[in-house]
């Protein structure tokens, strides 16, 4: 059985004077431990899709099932990582990474030590007592990743988490996030505008059409790329071929717009 299932999901936003059909007839399944990326033209409903999967927004029609249960509200089983880190500036890094546990009533000495171990694994052990403004952008995003992982979610939703970073930091963080997610055997969905990022981090890439977003095509990434960390995958001989194939499909959508 699929870990995550979307069945004929549609979302229309209504206002007093208008309606906006954001996504139309989206159906796909994600297996446990799989990494999926969603790409597409601006305004095609990528972030709306993540909001629906998170339970922050409910579908107008269709169903979304996580581990066989319909998603009807936000759940601790799902973690969300955004472009902005949204660390609380008045809290230390340790306080920031454990705030989810505290809010859920799950902050114990055991869970605190687990969160600090994650912080150490991501190279931030010496920064636990510092405040967010004392860290670089990449370090803050690593802290945000620890905060998300510390609550033990089954599903990770990543909404362009690297787009605000400089290119070198972005490449390093891609490798780190990819390796951490694989090590902890998490299921993840990434929304990105970066074709290369989608290719080197994913098992499959879902391309959405123009608004209202629907599935244009699903690309299954070959094993020789999936077996590599992102930086190495970008330098593999198969990378350019796949990049061009996805690029051409995306360009065909732009010409039809």
Number of strands: 10
The portion of residues forming beta strands comes to: 15-25%
- The CATH superfamily of the domain at 1-77 and 189-257 appears as P-loop containing nucleotide triphosphate hydrolases
CATH topology category name of the domain at 1-77 and 189-257: Rossmann fold
Report the end-to-end length measured between terminal Cα atoms.
37 Å
Q: Return residue spans where pLDDT drops below 50 for at least 5 consecutive residues.
A: none
Helix content: 25-40%
The ordered string of helix (H) and strand (E) elements is EEEHEEEHHHHEHEHEEHHH
| Chain-averaged pLDDT | 93
The CATH architecture term of the domain at 1-77 and 189-257 is 3-Layer(aba) Sandwich
Assign the CATH class of the domain at 1-77 and 189-257. Alpha Beta
| Largest β-sheet summary | 6 strands, mixed
The shape is globular
As a whole number of angstroms, the C-alpha radius of gyration is 19 Å
Strand order of the largest sheet: 6-7-8-3-9-10
Strand-pairing-aware structural class: alpha/beta
Number of helices in the DSSP assignment:
10
GO molecular function, one term: ATP binding
Pfam family, one: ABC_tran
InterPro entries: AAA+_ATPase, ABC_transporter-like_ATP-bd, ABC_transporter-like_CS, ABC_transporter_ATP-bind, P-loop_NTPase
Keywords: ATP-binding, Nucleotide-binding, Transport
